[in-house]
């Protein structure tokens, strides 16, 4: 179990970079749930999220020797995951979409994911905003990164991070029916 | 509080951004971006209708956003196993590359060491004073015993320069003949046949002979005096060195006998 290993993420990363397979496994075991959660939040679709999670985990495992210790390892890993999910979102945008899967506010059922209350509402609400906005919300509310870290991961100013998080939460709040009129905020692209 | 002192309410976007930032403890920075200090931002929020309700809605959205989707562990385990395998392969590639780089570095270092050894041995051999070489390609070795003083110019060299006047030319030639002869024999003796006769100077040979030059000249050369070409010959006689300078048309410019 990941919890059985007392080594820090950074120590495990160093050992994994030196070929310690067990260290890599423990590290990935720790990271996988939140890496998947980030991908799922950004992409909104379970299958796409699993694809992006796989890409992210492989990228982390392959490039682990490039982690230079200047940030926390988890920050570096979530950066990789975020990029994988945003890449997947861009690929998905280029793919033709079947008529029956055009967004109607509800995503497809997810056989691999156990339902949690309001999950569908979260995905549907966040589907109305661009993936870059969803990434900011995910890194803040799922991972707990501060605005400066998110700005570093996404490569945007902290003011933009703040704005994206506010719009993501507002979209969620509006979608959840806590507000009578839907937001008219622009959703054409990230700031 | 009258209308003039009442803070202006925020727009929906401003309200959401300030309230959302406040939930994350970032209100001061957000207010600064709106050109407000913290207290002014709080007053503007308080003056905005429905701000408290909106704060609760955004807080609920924040809490909802923190929920994760549970995924079956076997699914995640499969993803992880594939990643570990990819990591192992990448590590194997890195290790191979590193080994190859180390081997290449070692080969380069060994080659450099061999070259250095050869260079050191060659230098030692050449610096050995007993070592002589018959190879014309061998570089001259700079040792105190072999560092010869640069030879003085030969009489012909001395006579082939450029001079301000004809007396300077004759003095240079005369001194050079004396020095050359002493260096060669230890005592002053004529060195016959030291000069080569050119066809041009040969043209003036009768005039040189007429002016007293006898035997083979030790100097037979061209020179420049005041920028004009001249012929110069020097003859070693029993008690003197005779220097004769003719113009290009064989006219006498100067004739001098320096005793030795």
Please give a structural write-up:
- The complex is a heterodimer of chains A (191) and B (260).
- Chain A has 191 residues and is an all-alpha fold.
- Chain A has a single domain, classed as Orthogonal Bundle (Rna Polymerase Sigma Factor, Chain: A), CATH 1.10.1740.
- Helix content of chain A is 64%, strand content 1%.
- Chain A is built from eight helices and one strand.
- Chain B is of the alpha+beta class and 260 residues long.
- Chain B folds into three domains: 54 residues; 43 residues; 105 residues, no CATH class.
- In chain B, 52% of the residues lie in helices and 14% in strands.
- Chain B is built from nine helices and six strands; from the N terminus they run ααααβααβαααββββ.
- In chain B, strands 2-3-4-5-6 form a five-stranded mixed sheet.
- In chain B, helix 1 packs antiparallel against helix 2 and helix 1 crosses helix 4.
- The radius of gyration of chain B is 52 Å and the shape is elongated.
- The relative contact order of chain B is 0.07.
- Strand 1 of chain A pairs antiparallel with strand 1 of chain B.
Highlighted features:
heterodimer, A: 191 residues, mainly alpha, Rna Polymerase Sigma Factor, Chain: A, globular, disordered C terminus, B: 260 residues, alpha+beta, 3 domains, five-stranded mixed β-sheet, 6 strands, 52% helix, 14% strand
Short account of what is shown:
The complex is a heterodimer of chains A (about 190) and B (about 260). With about 190 residues, chain A is mainly alpha-helical.
């Amino acid at each position: 179990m990941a919890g059985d290993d007392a080594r820090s993420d950074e120590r495990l990363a160093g050992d994994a970079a030196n070929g310690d397979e067990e260290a890599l496994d423990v590290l990935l075991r720790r990271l996988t749930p939140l890496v998947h959660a980030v991908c799922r939040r950004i992409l909104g679709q379970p299958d796409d999220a699993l694809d992006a999670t796989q890409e992210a985990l492989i990228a982390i495992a392959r490039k682990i020797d490039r982690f230079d210790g200047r940030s926390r390892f988890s920050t570096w890993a979530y950066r990789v995951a975020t990029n994988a999910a945003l890449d997947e979102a861009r690929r998905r945008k280029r793919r033709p979409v079947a008529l029956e899967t055009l967004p109607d506010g509800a995503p497809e059922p997810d056989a691999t994911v156990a339902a949690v209350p309001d999950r569908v509402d979260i995905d549907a609400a966040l589907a109305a905003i661009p993936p870059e906005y969803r990434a900011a919300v995910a890194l803040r509310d799922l991972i707990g990164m501060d605005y400066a870290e998110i700005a570093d991961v996404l490569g945007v100013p902290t003011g933009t991070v703040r704005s994206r998080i506010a719009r993501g939460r507002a979209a969620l709040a509006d979608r959840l029916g806590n507000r009578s009129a839907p937001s008219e905020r622009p959703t054409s692209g990230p700031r | 509080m009258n209308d003039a002192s009442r803070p202006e309410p925020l727009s929906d976007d401003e309200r959401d951004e300030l309230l959302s930032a406040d939930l994350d403890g970032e209100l001061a920075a957000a207010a600064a971006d709106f050109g407000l200090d913290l207290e002014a931002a709080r007053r503007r929020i308080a003056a905005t209708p429905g701000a408290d309700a909106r704060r609760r809605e955004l807080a609920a959205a924040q809490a909802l956003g923190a929920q994760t989707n549970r995924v079956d562990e076997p699914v995640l385990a499969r993803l992880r196993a594939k990643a570990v395998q990819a990591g192992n392969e990448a590590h194997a590639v890195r290790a191979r590359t590193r080994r190859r780089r180390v081997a290449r570095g070692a080969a380069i270092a060994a080659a450099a060491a061999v070259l250095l050894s050869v260079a050191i041995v060659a230098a030692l051999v050449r610096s050995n004073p007993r070592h002589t070489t018959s190879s014309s390609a061998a570089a001259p070795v700079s040792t105190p015993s072999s560092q010869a003083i640069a030879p003085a110019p030969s009489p012909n060299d001395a006579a082939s320069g450029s001079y301000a006047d004809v007396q300077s030319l004759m003095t240079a030639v005369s001194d050079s003949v004396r020095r050359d002869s002493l260096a060669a024999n230890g005592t002053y003796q004529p060195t016959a046949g030291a000069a080569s006769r050119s066809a041009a100077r040969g043209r003036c040979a009768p005039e040189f002979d007429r002016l007293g030059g006898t035997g083979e000249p030790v100097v037979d050369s061209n020179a420049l005096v005041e920028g004009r070409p001249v012929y110069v010959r020097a003859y070693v006689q029993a008690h003197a060195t005779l220097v004769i300078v003719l113009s290009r048309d064989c006219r006498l410019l100067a004739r001098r006998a320096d005793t030795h």
